[in-house]
C-alpha cells in the first residue's frame, strides 16, 4: 500500500510503508530512497487540532467559570479597581474561599453599557451614570429597581466635577461664570459619548440656575468655548495635560487629582467651583449574566465589599468621595473641600434628564448643533 | 478544473461570513427602518456636513497618495541608494500599526506643543484638531495602497520602451506622458480606489487628531459611533447605509474610468 508522508512543511513523499515508529512517524521506500516522516492523515489531524485549539482559546474568555467575575466599568476607574480587586481577592481568600478571578473592562460608560446589552458576559457593572445601567435593565438583564438594592443609591462612592487649570491659574478662573470670558478655551469630552461630560454639562446647568442665569444660554456659550471634543474623559485629560490645549479642563474630581499625581502639581492647579453636581457612579449586579449560585455569591460579596471600611479607605485614596471614613487616611479625607453639590434628583432624575437634554434632538443638540 | 467545487465553496462561505452577511444585515436593518426614515436621518445639516467632510478629505488624501505613491514606487524601483530596502519595508508600516496608535503618535507630533505642531503654531496656524490634522491621518493610512499596486507594474516596464521612445525623438516629458503614465494608469487607479475606500471608513487614527467638533471636524464614522452611544441603532445604520451607497457609487465611477483607460491604451 502506498503511504504519503510529510517531510518538512510542504514537502511530501509517497512510497510503500516499511516501518512504523513508536512516535507515530513511518518510514517509506520511494524506490531509491528511504524516508521517514509523519503520515499525511496524522499531519492533517494535528493541524486540525491546532486550529481547534486556537478557536477554543479565542472563545474561552466569553465562557464564565465558576469563580470568575467580569466587572464592566468606565474609563477613570482603572486605578481604583486595580487596587480594589487586589484587596477584595485577599479578603475573599482570607474567608476560606478559593482565589477568585476578577477582571475589569474599561471604556466609555455608554459603549460599555451597549457591550453588556449586546452580550458581554459581565456579572457586575460599575458605570458612570445610572442612565446607562437603566438601559441594561430595559434590555432585561437586571430588574428595573436595581438602584434600590444597595445603600446610597447603589453608589459606594461619589465624585463631582472640578476645574483643572494651568499652574498659577493665568486666566484667573474661579467659578463657572469665568469660563465664558473672552479668550478662555474649555476642554470637555462630548456629552453624547461620555458619561463624565454629561455631569460637566449638568454642573454648568445647575450653577446657572442657582445664579439667576438662563441655563440654556449659559451652557450654549460655554460649549462655544470648547475647541476639541474628545469622546471620553481620559482622552480629554490627555488633550489638556499632554497636548497643551485649552485653559481649563472640566474633569471628574478624581481625574483632576490623578493628573496632578501623574504629571506633578507644579503644572496644574485644581479650582473648585461654588456649585457642582453630586456625581453618583452606581454599581449593580447583572442577574441575567449570573450562571450559578457560586458566581452570584462572589458577585454579591464583591459589591458589598465596596461598602466596607477597608474598601472605602481605598476609595478615598483614589480620590473618590466615600461614605465611611473610619479606616481612611485622614489626609485623604481632608483633601475634599465642601461645596454646594446638586443631586441628579433635584434636576428631575436620570430618566427625565436623559430624555430632555441628551437624547437626539434634545437640549444639547438644540444649543450645540443647528438641525 | 479539479478542486473548483471545494475551493469555490470555501471562498463563498468565508466571503459570506465576513463580508456579505454583515453588509446584508446593515441593509436589512435599514429596510426595516424604512427608506423615508433613513433619508430623514441623513438629510440633516450635521449628517451632511460629516459625510461631506469624510468623502472630501478622503478624496484629497487619495489624490495626494496617488501622486506621492507613484513617485515613491518609481524611486524605489528605478534607483539604487543606501537605505532603499529600509524605506521599501517602511512603506508597509501604516498597514501594520494599529490605527489608534498612529493617531496618537500623529497627534503628539502635530499638536501645538508637538515637534511639527509648534512650528506651525509659530507660523500662525493649527494642524491637529483641524481638517489638516484629519487629512494627515488619512494620508498616513492610505499611503501603502498606491505604492504597492504600482510597484510591480513599474518593475515590468522595460527600459527599452523608453529608449525606443527616445530614439523616435520624444523628449523626457513626452515619454512620461505618452508612454510611462498610460501603462501605470490602471494600477495607479486601483491603488487610488483602495486608498480612498480605506480613508472613508477610517476611525481610529482620525478620532484623536480631529477635534471632533460637529459641522467642522466631525467625520461620518464618529457620527455613527455617537448614534450608537445614544442607543440609536436605526440612526447609526442609516448613516452607515448612506456611506455604503456613496462609496459604492464612487468605486463604480473609478471602475468605469479604469475600463475606459484600458480600452484607450489597450490591455497592459
Structural notes for this entry:
- The complex is a heterodimer of chains A (371) and B (268).
- Chain A is an alpha/beta fold.
- Chain A has helices spanning 40-59, 78-94, 109-117, 130-138, 151-154, 195-210, 215-223, 233-241, 253-263, 293-305, 309-317, 330-334, 349-358, 363-368, and strands at 2-8, 11-20, 26-29, 34-39, 68-73, 101-105, 124-126, 161-166, 186-187, 248-252, 268-271, 275-277, 283-285, 340-342.
- Chain A has 14 helices and 14 strands.
- In chain A, strand 3 and strand 4 form a beta hairpin.
- In chain A, helix 8 crosses helix 9 (253-263).
- Chain B has 268 residues and is mainly alpha-helical.
- In chain B, helix 9 (159-167) crosses helix 10 and helix 10 runs antiparallel to helix 13.
- The longest helix of chain B has 34 residues, at 45-78.
- The two termini of chain B are 27 Å apart.
- Chain A binds chain B through residues 108, 110-111, 114, 135, 190, 192-193, 226-231, 235, 242-245, 358-360, 368-371, and chain B through 44-46, 107-108, 111-114, 128-129, 207-208, 211-215, 222, 225-232, 235.
In short:
Chain A is of the alpha/beta class and 371 residues long. Chain A has 14 helices and 14 strands. The longest helix of chain A has 20 residues, at 40-59.
Could you report the average pLDDT of chain B, rounded to the nearest whole number?
90
Cα-atom radius of gyration of chain B: 22 Å
User: Which chains share the greatest interface?
Assistant: A-B, 26 and 28 residues
Number of strand elements of chain A: 14
The biggest sheet of chain A amounts to:
4 strands, antiparallel, barrel
Beta-strand residue percentage of chain B: under 5%
Assembly category: heterodimer
Structural class of the helix and strand makeup of chain B?
A: mainly alpha
The chain-level mean pLDDT of chain A equals 87
Helix content of chain A: 25-40%
Distance between the termini of chain B: 27 Å
Lateral arrangement of strands in the main beta sheet of chain A: 1-2-3-4
The number of helical elements of chain A comes to 14
CA gyration radius of chain A, whole angstroms: 28 Å
Summing up helix and strand content along with how strands pair, one would put the structural category of chain A as alpha/beta
Overall geometry of chain A comes to elongated
Shape of chain B: globular
Percent range for helical residues of chain B?
Answer: over 70%
Could you name the ranges of chain B where pLDDT drops below 50 across 5 or more consecutive residues? none
Identify low-pLDDT runs of chain A: 59-66
What composes the largest sheet of chain B?
none
Amino acid at each position: 500500500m502506498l503511504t504519503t508522508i510529510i517531510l518538512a512543511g510542504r514537502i511530501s513523499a509517497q512510497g510503500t510503508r516499511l516501518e512504523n515508529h513508536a512516535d507515530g512517524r513511518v518510514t517509506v521506500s520511494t524506490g531509491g530512497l528511504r524516508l521517514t516522516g509523519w503520515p499525511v492523515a496524522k499531519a492533517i489531524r494535528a493541524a486540525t487540532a491546532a486550529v481547534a485549539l486556537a478557536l477554543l482559546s479565542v472563545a474561552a474568555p466569553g465562557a464564565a467559570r465558576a469563580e470568575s467575575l467580569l466587572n464592566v466599568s468606565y474609563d477613570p476607574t482603572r486605578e481604583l479597581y486595580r487596587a480594589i480587586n487586589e484587596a477584595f481577592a485577599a479578603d475573599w481568600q482570607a474567608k476560606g474561599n478559593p482565589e477568585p478571578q476578577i477582571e475589569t473592562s474599561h471604556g466609555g460608560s455608554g459603549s460599555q453599557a451597549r457591550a453588556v446589552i449586546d452580550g458581554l458576559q459581565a456579572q457586575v457593572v460599575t458605570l458612570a451614570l445610572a442612565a446607562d445601567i437603566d438601559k441594561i435593565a430595559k434590555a432585561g438583564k437586571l430588574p428595573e429597581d436595581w438602584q434600590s438594592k444597595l445603600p446610597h443609591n447603589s453608589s459606594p462612592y461619589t465624585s463631582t466635577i472640578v476645574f483643572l487649570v494651568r499652574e498659577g491659574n493665568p486666566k484667573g478662573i474661579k467659578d463657572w461664570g469665568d469660563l465664558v470670558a473672552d479668550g478662555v478655551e474649555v476642554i470637555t469630552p462630548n456629552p453624547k459619548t461620555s458619561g463624565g461630560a454629561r455631569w460637566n454639562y449638568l454642573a454648568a446647568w445647575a450653577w446657572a440656575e442657582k445664579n439667576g442665569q438662563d441655563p440654556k444660554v449659559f451652557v450654549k456659550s460655554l460649549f462655544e468655548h470648547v475647541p476639541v471634543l474628545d469622546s471620553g474623559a481620559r482622552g480629554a485629560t490627555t488633550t489638556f495635560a499632554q497636548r497643551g490645549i485649552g485653559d481649563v479642563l472640566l474633569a471628574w474630581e478624581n481625574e483632576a487629582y490623578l493628573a496632578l499625581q501623574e504629571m506633578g502639581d507644579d503644572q496644574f492647579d485644581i479650582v473648585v467651583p461654588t456649585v457642582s453636581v453630586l456625581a453618583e457612579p452606581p454599581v449593580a449586579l447583572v442577574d441575567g449574566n449570573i450562571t450559578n449560585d457560586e458566581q452570584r455569591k462572589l458577585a454579591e460579596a464583591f459589591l458589598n465589599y465596596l461598602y466596607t471600611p477597608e474598601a472605602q479607605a481605598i476609595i478615598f485614596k483614589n480620590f473618590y468621595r466615600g461614605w465611611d471614613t473610619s479606616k481612611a487616611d485622614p489626609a485623604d479625607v481632608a483633601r475634599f473641600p465642601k461645596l454646594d453639590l446638586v443631586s441628579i434628583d433635584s434636576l428631575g432624575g436620570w430618566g427625565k434628564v436623559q430624555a430632555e437634554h441628551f437624547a437626539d434632538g434634545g437640549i444639547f443638540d438644540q444649543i450645540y448643533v443647528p438641525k | 478544473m479539479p478542486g473548483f467545487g471545494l475551493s469555490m465553496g470555501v471562498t463563498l462561505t468565508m466571503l459570506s461570513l465576513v463580508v456579505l452577511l454583515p453588509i446584508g444585515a446593515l441593509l436589512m436593518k435599514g429596510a426595516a427602518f424604512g427608506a423615508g426614515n433613513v433619508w430623514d436621518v441623513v438629510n440633516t445639516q450635521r449628517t451632511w456636513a460629516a459625510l461631506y467632510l469624510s468623502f472630501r478629505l478622503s478624496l484629497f488624501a487619495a489624490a495626494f497618495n496617488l501622486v506621492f505613491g507613484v513617485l515613491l514606487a518609481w524611486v524605489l524601483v528605478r534607483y539604487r541608494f543606501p537605505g532603499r530596502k529600509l524605506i521599501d519595508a517602511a512603506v508597509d508600516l501604516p498597514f501594520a500599526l494599529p490605527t489608534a496608535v498612529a493617531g496618537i503618535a500623529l497627534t503628539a507630533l502635530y499638536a501645538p506643543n508637538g515637534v511639527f505642531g509648534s512650528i506651525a503654531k509659530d507660523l500662525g496656524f493649527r494642524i491637529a484638531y483641524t481638517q489638516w490634522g484629519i487629512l494627515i491621518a488619512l494620508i498616513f493610512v492610505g499611503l501603502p495602497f498606491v505604492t504597492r499596486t504600482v510597484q510591480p507594474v513599474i518593475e515590468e516596464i522595460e527600459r527599452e520602451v523608453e529608449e525606443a521612445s527616445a530614439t523616435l525623438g520624444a523628449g523626457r516629458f513626452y515619454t512620461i506622458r505618452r508612454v510611462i503614465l498610460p501603462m501605470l494608469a490602471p494600477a495607479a487607479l486601483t491603488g487610488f480606489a483602495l486608498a480612498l475606500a480605506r480613508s472613508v471608513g477610517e476611525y481610529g487614527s482620525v478620532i484623536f487628531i480631529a477635534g471632533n467638533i460637529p459641522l467642522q471636524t466631525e467625520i461620518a464614522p464618529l457620527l455613527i459611533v455617537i448614534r450608537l452611544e445614544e442607543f440609536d441603532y436605526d440612526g447609526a445604520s442609516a448613516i452607515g447605509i448612506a456611506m455604503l451607497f456613496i462609496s459604492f457609487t464612487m468605486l463604480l465611477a473609478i471602475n468605469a474610468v479604469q475600463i475606459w483607460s484600458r480600452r484607450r491604451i489597450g490591455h497592459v
